[in-house]
Amino acid sequence: MASITLHNLGKLYAGGSRAVGDVNLDIADGEFIVLVGPSGCGKSTLLRMVAGLEEISEGEVRIGDRVVNKLEPAERDIAMVFQNYALYPHMSVRQNLAYGLKNRGTPKAEIERRVNEAAEILQIGPFLDRKPRALSGGQRQRVAMGRAIVREPAAFLFDEPLSNLDAKLRVAMRLEIKQLQKRLATTSIYVTHDQLEAMTLADRLVVLNGGKVEQIGTPLEVYRRPASAFVAGFIGSPAMNLIDSRAVPHLPGTAHAGMVGIRPEDLTLAPDGPIEMQVLAIEELGAQRLVHGTTGGEKLTIALPPEGSIPDSLRLSYRPDALHLFDRKTGKRIN
Amino acid sequence: MKRTIFNSQLLPWLLLAPQLAITFIFFLWPAAQAIRQSFLRQDAFGIRTTFVGFENFQRLLNSPEYLNSLQVTAVFAVSVTLLSMGFALILAVAVDRMIRSSRIYTTALVWPYAVAPAVAGILWWFIFNPTVGIMPYVLGQLGYNWNHISNPGDAMTLVVIASAWKQISYNFLFFLAGLQAIPNSLREAAAIDGAGPVRRFFDITFPLLSPTTFFLLVVNIVYAMFDTFAVIDTTTRGGPAQATNILVYKVYFDGFVGQNMGSSAAQSVFLMLIVTVLTVIQFRFIEKKVAY
C-alpha cells in the first residue's frame, strides 16, 4: 500500500504529437481515483505510464517514496486489470492467479494460501481448475481481479475493466469493485469513459480532456461546481444544458458570461418563470420525464416528475444559485 | 449459401464429372497402378511379369539400403523441419516487434518461397561448390575442408540447408500471423506479473502459438519427405554413398534409373501409408490436443 504522486507528467509521441501534458496529482494511500474523459483524452495513456507499459516523456511518477520512471512494470509493485481481462488462455484459473507470485519466487504454500484466499473473496473457488474460455464474462472479470489481489500490490490499476460486460452485470460488478477496494484499502486508479461509473466509484475524480486535467475533486464537488463547460457537459446524466448567454439576455447576472449552464433537474415549471421553452420531444424514463426543446434557438432539456400533460410551450424557473457561468473563450467557470 | 434443387440426377453428376475425372485419372488410377505393381515382378528384359505377393515388401524391409534410406529420411526431415521452423520463428518474432518497417521485411522474407526447388538446389550447390563456391572458401579459412561430393555429413548439411531455406518463408508467414493474433495485453499482463522477455516468450507466446507450430510441424515434415526431390536431384543425387538418398529419391532412382518397377512401386505404397498417417495425425490432433 502506498501513495502515488504524478508530477508534471506528460507524454509526447515520436511524431511530436502530445497525448498527455502537465498532469499533477497526489493520490493518498488507499484512495480510489477515477480518471474519466471521452475516448482519446489520454486517460489510458496516463494509466499505462503509471503501470510502466508506456514510456514517460516528461515529469515524474512516484509510488510510495520511489521514483518509478525508469523501473520495469514488474518492479513497480502494481497490479493491473485490463479491459479484455488478458487472462492467459492456456492456463487454468489457478495458474493464472499464481503466475505473478510464481515469477517472484513466492513459496508454494504461500501461493496456495493467497490463491485460495482470493478465490474465496471473489467466489471463484469452484472454477479454479477451469480454463478461462470455460468462464462467463463476469467470472473472467473476477479472475482478472483475483490476479490483481493475490499479489497484494501497492496499487491497483484498472483500465476500463467493466466495458466488456452487459449493462446489468456492469452495475453489479461496479458495486463489488467498490466494496472490494474499501475492504482491501489498496490505492487504486481506475480509467473509464463512463461518467456514471466514475461518479459511483471514485473518492476523487480526475476529468481529462485533450490530454489536460480539467478538474480534480470528489464526485459531488465536480457535479456541483464543474470547473469548466467541458466538465459541466460531461459529468451528470442527463447532461447539463449549456446555453449561449446571448440567447437568454434577460437572465440576471449572465451578461458577462459567454455560456450559461443549468442542470435539467434544476429547472422547474413556473407560470411566470423567466425562461420560455418550446417543446420538441418527451422521453419517459419511468422515475422521471425528460422534456427536450429550445429556448431562443438553443437546445434545452428539463427533467420533470412524470405527472400531468406537457403543453407545447412551457415557462421555467430556477434557483439563482443553480446557474453555472462559463467564459466563452476558455470555457472556464467564472462564478 | 443458395441451395439449388435439380430436377434430374443427371445434371449434378455432369457438373461434378470434370473434377471426378481429374481425381480419378491423375490420382486414384496411378495410385491403384502402384499398388498393383507392388505385388508383381518383371524379369530383367521386361518380358515376363509374375505375381509375387508381398515379396517386394519383404525384400525392402530386409534390404540394408532401404533401411538406410528410412534413417536418412528421418534425419533429413527432422533437420529440415527444425532448421526452417526455428529460423522462421526467430524472424517472425523479430518482425512482430517492428512497427514501421515490418511490411518491407515481410515482403523481402517471402521471396525465397517463389524460388523453384530445383533453382534453390542449384543456388546452394554453387554457394557450397568445393571448387568455386564462397562457403567452402570461408570454411577453408576457418580450417574446415568442405566437400559435399565425398563427405556424407557435408552432403547432408547441404541438402538440409537448401531445403530448409526455401521453407523458411512459408513458416515465417504463418508464425507472424500467429504472433499478431496474440493480444498485446497478454504480454503486458505477463510483464506486470514479473516475467522478463525470455520468460514471456516461453510461458505465454510460445504456448499460444502451439496450434500454428503443430500445423507447421506436419506441413514441414511432409514437405521435407516429398517436396525436396528437386533439391536432391540438382545437388547430390542421393550420394555420396547413399548418404542423402531419401525415400522419394530412392523411389525415382530404383524405378526409373534402376528399372526395378516392383520394388519402386512397393516403396511408393510405403510412402502413401506414411502420408496417410501424417494426415490422420494432423486432423486428429490439431483440433484437440493443441488447442488451448
Structure explained in plain terms:
The complex is a heterodimer of chains A (335) and B (292). With 335 residues, chain A is an alpha+beta fold. Chain A is 26% helix and 31% strand. In chain A, the strands form 4 sheets. A 6-stranded mixed β-sheet of chain A has the order 6-7-8-3-9-10, sandwiched between helices. In chain A, strands 13-17-14-15-16 form a 5-stranded antiparallel β-sheet, with no helix packed on it. Chain A has a 4-stranded antiparallel β-sheet with strand order 2-1-4-5, with helices on one face. In chain A, a hairpin with a 4-residue loop joins strand 14 (275-284) and strand 15. The longest helix of chain A has 18 residues, at 167-184. The two termini of chain A are 39 Å apart. The mean pLDDT of chain A is 91. Helix content of chain B is 72%, strand content 2%. Chain B has a two-stranded antiparallel sheet. The longest helix of chain B is centred in the N-terminal third of the chain and has 34 residues, at 64-97. Chain B is globular and about 75 Å long. Chains A and B meet through strand 6 and helix 2 of A and helix 8 and helix 9 of B.
